[in-house]
Structures are given as C-alpha cells and as structure tokens.
Design brief:
The structure is a homodimer of 337-residue chains. Chain A is α/β, with parallel strands linked by helices. Helix content of chain A is 34%, strand content 23%. Chain A has a 6-stranded mixed sheet with strand order 1-9-14-13-10-11, sandwiched between helices. The mean pLDDT of chain A is 95.
Chain lengths: 337, 337
C-alpha cells in the first residue's frame, strides 16, 4: 500500500516499489541513425513496416514493443492483468487497436507526450496498491501520422521554424511487476496542468517548460531528496528551445534539479538528423527510457533517474479557436534498489 | 489496500470502498426535456452558455460540474488531491482546459463513452490504494462539438439512420473520498477491448454490446454475486439497437445480469426527443449516474447499481481506413453500505 499522500501533495510514494522486469523499444529509421542505435531493440527499415498506413504502422509498433517486452521474460499476453497505454492520435487509436490484439484489461490514457510517465505511474499504483501482479505500460508516436493530424500533409512541404520539434517515430513498452528483479519505480509526482499563455504551436517546448519545472520542484520539495540525488533528471521532450527556457525558470525558482539535467528531445538525435529544436512525441521519452536509460540503470551505470515526460495538451481545434497551450509533466523515479 | 487481483481476473475489489461524498450534473436543453429534469443540478438554456464555441461550452460544463460537486460539500478545488477526467474531443481538450482552471494534479483518460466508469475506477484505486484522500472523477460530452468532430457539420443536415445515437450534451462530476458518508464504490471490473468486426459508425450500439456483455459476465463470474444482486445493471450508451443486441448475447452466454437491466442511452430521453436509437457520449452515463442514480442509491430507493459505461474506440481516420470498431466497457459497483 502506498503511503497516504498528504493533502496538497502531488507525490505518490510506493511502499513496495514495483519492479521493471522487462522493457522494449522499436524506433523509426531516423531515430536509428542517432546516437543510441545500439540501445534500441528494433530499428524499422522504413516508415510503413509492411502496413497500408502510418496509423496502422504506429499501432503495430506499440503492439510489437509490448510483445517483445513480454517475450524477453518468456511471458505471454495472458501473463499480464492490465495494459495502460495512450498515444497522440485522435481517440488514441494506436493504443486501442493494439489493446484489441493484446486482449487484456485495458485503461486508455491521454497525456500527449507525457504518456510514458503517466502510464508508468498509473501502472505502478495498480501494482503497489494491490490490484494487479503484472502490468504493461506502453506508448507510441509516428512522425507521419502526427504530422498529418496536427500540422499539414507532409507532401505539402510546409517550412519548419527553428523552434519546431520532430515527432519521433518510436514505441516503448515496460512491464511492471510486484517483486522480481530489475530497477524499481519508487515514487511518482503527478503533474498539474500549467498554461503560461503561450499560443505558438510551433514552439511547444516553451509551452511545456513551466509544467516540467513545476513538477520537478514539487518532486524535490515533497520527497526531501537533495538536488544531486538523481544521476539524471531528464524531461520528456522540451527540445533545445524548451530546455533553455526550463534552465532559466530553474534559476528563478532557486532549484538546480541535478548536475545532470537534460531532455529526451535533445538527447534522441545528434546534430546530423535535421530535427530543428529536437525530438517530441510520446515515443521520444518512451524510447529513451526503454533504450539507453533502463539499460544503464539496470546495468549499474546509473543508480537512478527521474523521468519527467512532458505533454502539450492543445488540439488543432483549440489552436484555431485562439486558445493558449496547456501543458503537463509527470515524473517517475526509477532506481536500482 | 485492494485485495490482490488474481492472475487473469479483471475485477478490483476495494478493501475500504471509497465514499461518493458528492456529485453534480449539468445537462443541455434536450436532456432537460427528458424524464429526469428534476434530477439534474443545472439545465442549460442553450448550447453555448455564453461561450464563443461549443468546445469552450463543453469544457465549461465539465469545470462547473466539478466545482458544483465540491461546493455541495463546502469544498474548494484545493481540497482535492487528484482530478481524473476525459472526454470525446480530440486530445481530450474539454478535460485539459477544465483541469487548467481546477489546477490540481491531473490524470487524463481516454475511454470514449466509457470514461465515467473508467475515471471512477481509477479514482477509487487511488483512494483505496492509499495515494489520495479525495479525488474528483469527471467527464463531459456536447452534441454539437461531437457532431462536427466525428460526423459532419450540423448545418449540412445529413440524414440520420434509425441506429444513430444522439451524443448527449451533459457533464457529470463525482467526488470520492476515503471514509465519510454516501454510497460506496465497492468494486470495479476493467474491460478488455472487444471487436466483433462491426464497421458501421452509425451503429455504435451494436459494436459496443459485445464489450458490455463480456465485462458484465466477467464481473458476475469473478465476484460470485448472484444475478439479482443489483437493483439495477445499466450499460452506458448502447441505446435501443445495442440493448437488444446485448439481450440476445446474454441469452447466448447463459447470463441474466439482473431483473432490472437497462441502458443509459435508452433511459436518458423519452419518446419525444427525436434521438433515433437513443443517447450516447461520455455525458450520457455520467449525467444518469450523477442525476437520478446516485440520488436513488443515496436515498435508499435502490440498494446498489452496477454502472457499465461503454465506449466505441474508433476514430474518423480509422473508419476511413476501413478498420472495424473496437469497443470497451468498464463496470463500477456502487452500493449503499
């Protein structure tokens, strides 16, 4: 059972931290050209992977990442009691169609690019709370399905701006279990929706940075952990522009979150992939977690990380209606304990 | 702490069932003309409620229903530790923008019209699991925001078919608390995604009926409760066509779920509102729960109900791509104990 979350507190402390017993990542060609090619389980040869549409490909990526995470431990879909997943597509269809094939009890989430952390924290609460023994948390994004839904047909060749982010083609899946071996999910901080009035949908990093800082600040205040507790504090996908905004905000609130503070949108690619400000999409923090980060924590190269996946919660409709961009960030602490 | 959910089981049994200490409903003009006008807290005079778009109205309905549920118990938004919500709009913007104003830790869900039950079961697990003392679960739908997103501009006057359902303009909010007085949420059955190959988006009831039957069957099998345990077993929004399919499927699986088995989509309107097969939308089961049902359970008119909110998980994009319609149903047992 979790410690009672005191009134006004955002952090869930898991009394018996669930084990991350397995994980898997599947990424697109561009992500496979970046610095982490050896860390991903599978790099797709093209953007369709034998499917008739990008949407079908994205759903297949999520489904296959989940099955791969299971198979690494010799598990079947029938060995999990709950699947918690979401994605960027309208009505989270990538997750819904994957859940149809996986055919276990399913909770659909929507947290935009914060979904990897959101799904992990819900999954961890279901395990630690005593409702499930083993839960799958997963998410995905696909560059081309996202572009045509959120922006413009890619064939149109709309000019990108320097603050633009590149939606990653990537899926990540994590299996959490009561007991076992592997890194543990020790606590999680649930984010609030923060909106500082930013209206430029081509600069989501700046819209999300205040949410990331708010959640990280709450996490350190509520856990009482020193600023150098984590070997890595890493935001979801602020990318270069958003990361610089976050660094400035940290100075203002008097917090240095870690000597090693970075962002998945900055780390996913190197300078050769022409992604403007950096990566984004649910798959961005998902594949960095299920690629390099979990390998490093499990292998002892890092003791622990705080993954702070960030999401911009607008839609094309609300942008047309001149609304500003609300954002959220959820944090999960993953430790080799 | 919840009893351990045995492998392969879908039902969470809450050891200390959370109390439903407050609830509120806000509905549109058409819903206010139906048989339950005295049960709703607020009936809107028109579909805009002073806002500039239907989307903004829907978000306001969700936000105001939440605030009304809080104010009935003299609570402020700062008295809740978590908000769990979702809706039908792309990127669940009604919920996101409401969460921005309510400004507490937020988990966004997507379960289409199953969201009322999904949000209640997640909220109940967070309270019973020991992570929160008081949680808000809420959802909404708006006929005109849904029509233009899912179907066609209403100005176009597209002909409806007899199996069409009318998306309810309605929002419901429920406050769950550890201890206190009020009906309790004793257990919940998490649904699986079920797809029987139905492809007609104008007949969602038939697509959802197998999911409802699957979840209800699992609920009775796993809890061992007799078929007449509940005073009412009520599906979310199968409407008339879907309800008749469900009744047929129950005969095939040899289950009579209750002498009083009905559907929120059938009950919400009477014969005068020209809604074809009946109601649908997240708000349909939400306003029936927070209107008549909770009043009847709290007042002793009914001992208990099993609310089985049902969702069709397709999107216009997947329909264009010739995918069939996956569906899900989540069940929550609400009892006067």
């Amino acid at each position: 059972m979790g410690a009672i979350n005191k009134k006004g507190r955002q952090t869930f402390i898991f009394a018996d931290p669930p084990c991350i017993i397995s994980w898997a990542s599947i990424v697109g060609p561009k992500e496979g050209e970046g610095p982490w090619s050896d860390d991903f389980d599978q790099i797709l040869p093209d953007y369709l992977w034998g499917e008739a549409s990008w949407e079908k490909t994205e759903s297949k990526m999520l489904r296959e990442a989940a099955k791969l995470a299971l198979s690494k431990q010799g598990l079947q879909t029938s060995d999990i009691e709950l699947m918690v997943a979401g994605d960027l597509l309208n009505q989270i269809t990538s997750s819904n169609y994957a859940a149809r094939e996986i055919a276990v009890p399913f909770l659909g989430l929507y947290g935009a690019c914060s979904t990897m952390a959101e799904s992990l924290l819900v999954a961890a609460a279901m395990v630690d709370g005593g409702y499930c023994e083993r839960v799958l948390a997963a998410t995905s994004s696909h560059h081309y399905s996202a572009e045509r839904q959120y922006r413009a047909p890619v064939e149109q060749g709309v000019q990108r701006v320097p603050s633009s982010q590149w939606t990653a083609t990537a899926a990540g899946a994590v299996i959490l279990q009561k007991g076992g071996s592997g890194p543990r999910l020790s606590c999680a901080t649930v984010g609030k929706v923060i909106d500082m009035g930013q209206t430029d949908a081509a600069n989501m990093g700046a819209a999300m940075a205040p949410a990331a800082v708010d959640t990280i600040k709450a996490h350190f205040q509520e856990t009482g952990r020193p600023h150098d507790y984590y070997d890595l504090v890493v935001t979801g996908d602020l990318a270069a522009v958003g990361l610089s905004v976050a660094r400035e905000l940290f100075v203002r609130v008097g917090l240095v979150p870690s000597p090693n503070f970075s962002d998945c949108g900055v780390l996913l690619y190197d300078g050769l992939q022409d992604v403007d400000s950096g990566g984004s999409g649910c798959g961005c923090s998902a594949c960095m977690l299920t690629g390099p980060f979990l390998r490093k924590v499990a292998g002892g190269e890092m003791r622990n990380i705080l993954l702070v996946s960030t999401g911009a919660l607008m839609s094309p409709t609300t942008t047309f209606q001149k609304e500003s961009i609300p954002a959220i960030a959820h944090a999960v602490a993953i430790e080799n304990i």
